[in-house]
Specification:
There is one protein chain. This protein has helices at residues 11-22, 34-40, 56-60, 77-89, 102-110, 119-132, 162-165, 167-171, 208-212, and strands at 3-7, 26-31, 46-49, 68-71, 94-98, 115-117, 136-141, 146-151, 174-180, 185-188, 200-207. By secondary structure, the protein is an alpha/beta fold. The radius of gyration is 21 Å and the shape is elongated.
Amino acid sequence: MKRVVVVGLGIFGFHIAKQLYENGIEVIAIDKNKDIVQKIRDFSTKAVVADATEKDVFEAIGIQEDDTVIVSFGEDLAASTLLTLHLKELNVKTIIVKAPNEDHKRVLQKVGASEVIIPEREMASKIAKSIISPNVLDYIPVSDDYNIGEIAPPPSFIGKSFADLHLRKKYHIEVIAMKDVLSDKITLIPSANSVIKDSDILVVIGKEQDIQKIK
């Protein structure tokens, strides 16, 4: 079973740990604050009161190379950097670190974080996109240029087949799946003759500006 270690149980870390645990992931939650650790006990496999910047904490829990570690120390760059260095020395492959800004992100990438996220910026971007293109329900970036997006089809698409719409030619996007929200039926790589219903959600891949053209 996949194991995730969440270090730092502020709002972000607490909710990440809780959601992972509720979805069947083995979660070890670590924080220096005893009260917060007490609260996470029901939402984690194991909850530990410790200063995670001390290297022996991870040796004590038996950290493995294939474990995922999520570091959420807020604006404490020194602690995030030190812990990232320790995890690299322990050969942990996946180190996801929360950062407050781009300067911290660059430092953490330099010392070995495999992924650095800025939650406030990413949430702001997501909300802005939902206002700009209200029928684009969600985005998942797959590269600097391409995204996977969930789209509620505009009225002009309803009742038409993909062959009728020529989405690749007109919008330069590919439909990789179609989901009927009423039946939860998912069709992967729908055929050209598939007809779009008003209960369908389209999962598409393409450049952000091309996905946003579908309004």
